[in-house]
Amino acid sequence: MALGFCLGVALLLSVWSHGKCADVPEDKTGVYPITEQYGAECGYKVSVFPVPPLVTLQASYFSCHTDNKEDKMFMFNFNLIGTHEGEEVTYALNKTCSPSLPWSAREVICEVNYMEVNVQSDLACPMGTRKEDWNSTLKTAYASATSDWQVMFHQDEMPLTPVTLSEARNKGYVFDLTEGRLIFRSPYGQPESISTIVNNVPVELIHPTLFSRQSWVVLMIDLMAACSMHEGAYDGSYLRWEAPQAQYLLSGLNAMQVNAGLNGELWEQLIAEEKGYIVQTQGSTVNISIPYDAEGGFRKSIVTDRLYEFYVYDFYMNQLLVDQDNVHTRIYSHRVLTTPLLQSSIFTENRTVLEDEAFTVYLEVADDIELVSFNLNGKEVTGPFTNTSTSTIYEAAEPNDLHSYTLKVPFTDPVVKQQFSKQNSVLQFSLHLDYTLVVLPEGEPYHHTAYVEAVIMGISPPAFEAFCTETGISFKLDRQPFDYLWEICIGSEPLTPELANQLGYFMHRDDQKLLLDVPIFTYGFEYNDINLARFLGTFELLVWDHKMTEVHAAFAKTCPFPTNELIVCSTDGTLTVVADMSMAIPRGGVLAWTLKNETCGPKEVDGTKVLFSFRLNTCGTRIKLGKGNVVYENEILPVEKSISGNRLAVSRNETDKVTVQCMYHLAGLHRLFKVYRFESDQDGLGSIVHTVPPTSGPRDDMMASTTPQPTTTTVPTTTTVLGRRQSRILPALHPPARYIKVGGFMKNRSYSQNRGAEGNRQQEFLAQI
């Protein structure tokens, strides 16, 4: 039964949380402030519920300013005057109601702030009155000499003293008479009321008897009301409320029916139990247990030293009693029940799916709690929240007065901490979250922290395949989802398309694979086992962690290459050169080859090809200092032989020699002078200089008529140092050699001049893969 009982009608008005109720203009007689006292006397109750912000005006059907039409129709025409942000606002509250149930012979209303009883006006029999009380009342009534209506209040061991209705009204009691009902109303805590304990339940009782003597006839009406003052008890799951019936269970009265509910809505016992209520009658006491999260309850959060919450229930109960004469008594009880402060639990759940490669964190809070900011591993994000490409947050309503926030943070977001274990190939992502929440409407802040992590097993650094080509070494990588966790580097420099282009590499990269073609004699090659037939070239790729703090893997490939002409200037000061001496053979032939110091001979000789390897501080090497560099220079000279084949002398003819040079940058040299140990940060730039006559013809004529000239060209060379890059134009002597070893990030001229041909080779290489 929704609000259809003699308690009256609850007119609900949602107002701002900082709104304030003022006066209520009621009927045409004037404006009446509804104070606590006035409301209790006239049948009104104003309640304020915190969540949602709600003001409730409840009025009895028999309240002071209600229009009553034959006890069947009740009209409420009120204007509620309130203040909102300092301005007066008027709300019209107009409602016409009719009781949904027939009136019982006696109706008792236990409101929050008053007791009310109404009986049929023609019912004068003493229902539920003890015989001794009735006799005492009757004697007092007969002793009264007035015909005016008077009232006596029964109190334990207190003499009955009649008072007039005017005197009773001055004490705060209200008596009223309608066409068919006699009404009595009393605030709680009156001097004539009795506080007692019935079946371990606190009860407040008031027992007036209204009488009038007309000649020898005495009219008497018994108007007893007893209400449970139980405040509710919380057991961890239910809020229990109790009400004894002992005051009414006289003369054969028995309980027939109990209905219960919230917010003015009453359910029959079976329906209430389906909603989770427990309704029990133990002896003469009704015990009702309300689930702590019952639908219709009000929940409020509060911050003290911690975050707490409490629940408020606008509780109603209806009991129907009947006596042996089939006379009905209906008892209505209305109470605002509140749980104690309960520790509030904010629900956080890690809903991350590894395949999404992102954290998904779910946060659920009460409706009166709002998220204003959050901190991700030290990075603060404040509202209003705008979703970015790296992190997103969504808010959604949830059942049971809750709402949620769902945060998504990709594993690739810089705020996410990553840790890779090489020992067991485990990749761990972690995120510390600190939510800043506020409780509304007070705005009290509260911090909630959470930690989430995701672990992926079987993760390994990128693994390359490598194979030899005619022109260099090629690498292939099938890309994996977590390759972004590592940096592929040349030394300590990350491999990027820009770097590959600068160094003369051919690089192709997409979502499926990475292809790298490294031509021989570009930066990064190491050379070993050099002889006249072939040498070994080794190129290495390093895999660093993304923070460039540790090398996780290295992939090196060694390939053999045929030896034509080459020169290697190593960091330890060793010059290794393979030179073609066919243009430096003297007229009489060659018995042997030597450097400027005749004691330094070749390691290998095969016809006109020679292999020398010597330290730069030996074998007569000259040092030339330039601006920012130093050049070490030596010469390969023939030892002539006579027609008979005997040794003659070392030829010093300009056309009978090949000059070899190694140039090093001064900034990278730790030792300079040739008498000390040589040490350089980088390989040097080498060159082989062949001196040839400017015209062709028989050698005898050439030597007799011309002055030999060395072949010279100016080669634009780019020198790159890891961690710092610089471009400069350096003069150099370039021989007609196929291979020249260069230091740093130097590029040889033959590659620069054959870019188109190498580009064609790159396309052929990609097609093969």
Could you tell me the mean pLDDT? 79
Helix content: under 10%
* Beta fraction: over 45%
Biggest pleated-sheet summary: 9 strands, mixed
Helix- and strand-based class? Answer: mainly beta
Uncertain runs are 1-25, 124-131, 695-769
Would you spell out the secondary-structure blueprint of this structure?
Elements: E1 9-14, E2 20-21, E3 24-26, E4 30-32, H1 36-42, E5 44-49, E6 54-59, E7 67-69, E8 73-84, E9 87-97, E10 106-110, E11 114-120, H2 131-143, E12 150-153, E13 163-164, H3 165-170, E14 174-177, E15 181-187, E16 194-198, E17 201-206, E18 208-214, E19 217-222, E20 225-228, E21 233-234, E22 238-244, E23 254-262, H4 269-274, E24 278-282, E25 285-291, E26 298-303, E27 307-322, E28 328-338, E29 342-343, E30 347-350, E31 358-366, E32 369-376, E33 379-382, E34 392-398, E35 402-410, E36 417-421, E37 426-439, E38 444-457, E39 465-468, E40 472-478, E41 486-490, E42 493-494, H5 497-503, E43 506-509, E44 513-519, E45 526-528, E46 534-545, E47 551-562, E48 566-569, E49 574-580, E50 590-594, E51 604-606, E52 609-615, E53 622-625, E54 629-641, E55 647-650, E56 658-665, E57 685-692, H6 699-705, E58 709-710, E59 718-721, E60 724-727, H7 749-753, H8 755-768
Parallel strand pairs: 10-28
Antiparallel strand pairs: 1-6, 2-8, 3-4, 5-6, 7-8, 8-9, 10-11, 11-15, 12-13, 12-18, 14-15, 16-17, 17-20, 18-19, 21-22, 22-25, 23-27, 24-25, 26-27, 27-28, 27-29, 30-31, 31-35, 32-33, 32-37, 34-35, 36-37, 37-38, 39-40, 40-44, 41-42, 41-46, 43-44, 45-46, 46-47, 48-49, 49-52, 50-54, 51-52, 53-54, ...
